[in-house]
Design a protein that fits this description.
mainly alpha, about 90% helix
Length: about 180
């Protein structure tokens, strides 16, 4: 309320002073300049603290923004440096990968050759054992057939000759005693 009253008085005062004779001389502007001076002084006095607070707050915000931007710029620079190092090391990493791949291939080939060689040796041993078993079986079969043939011929020869037949019967009876 006091502020309103003061503003009214200032305006009325300026109106009363500005209502001079109006002769058109530069001296007629003096009361207007006095009113303007009073108004600007009053506004400066009233708005000084809010304006100072506003600009102080803006300056603090800008300072904080600049500090954050500086931190972000440093972080970005560090990340960019790290990426550059990675890019610079890509050729070395590719060479390392190729060397490792060649070593792996060589090792795989050696292991595979050793495994195949072992399998071949095992298969040779298995084949030799199987051949030996089949040979033994065939030899036994051949012996059995030969013995059966010999026995069959001996029987037929004994049966065809009655003298041998009685002699064989007597020998068999003596062997049972």
């Amino acid at each position: 309320m006091k502020l309103f009253l003061l503003a009214t008085l200032v305006m009325l005062n300026g109106t009363a002073i500005a209502a001079g004779k109006g002769t058109g001389s530069p001296a007629d502007l003096i009361p207007a300049f006095i009113n303007l001076f009073i108004l600007l002084s009053f506004l400066t006095w009233i708005l000084k603290k809010p304006a100072r607070n506003y600009y102080t707050e803006k300056s603090d915000n800008i300072k904080n923004l600049l500090e954050r931007a500086s931190v972000k710029a440093k972080e970005s620079q560090m990340m960019m440096d790290a990426q550059r190092k990675k890019i610079d090391n890509v050729a070395e990493e590719i060479d390392t990968i190729f060397v490792d791949a060649d070593k792996s291939i060589t090792k795989f080939e050696a292991d595979y050759k050793a495994e195949v060689s072992e399998r071949i040796d095992k298969m040779k041993q298995d084949a030799a054992a199987k051949i030996e078993a089949e040979k033994k079986q065939a030899f036994n079969k051949l012996n059995n057939n030969f013995l059966d043939e010999v026995i069959g011929k001996a029987k037929s020869h004994i049966k065809s000759n009655p003298e041998l037949s009685t002699k064989a019967t007597n020998s068999a009876l003596e062997g049972l005693k």
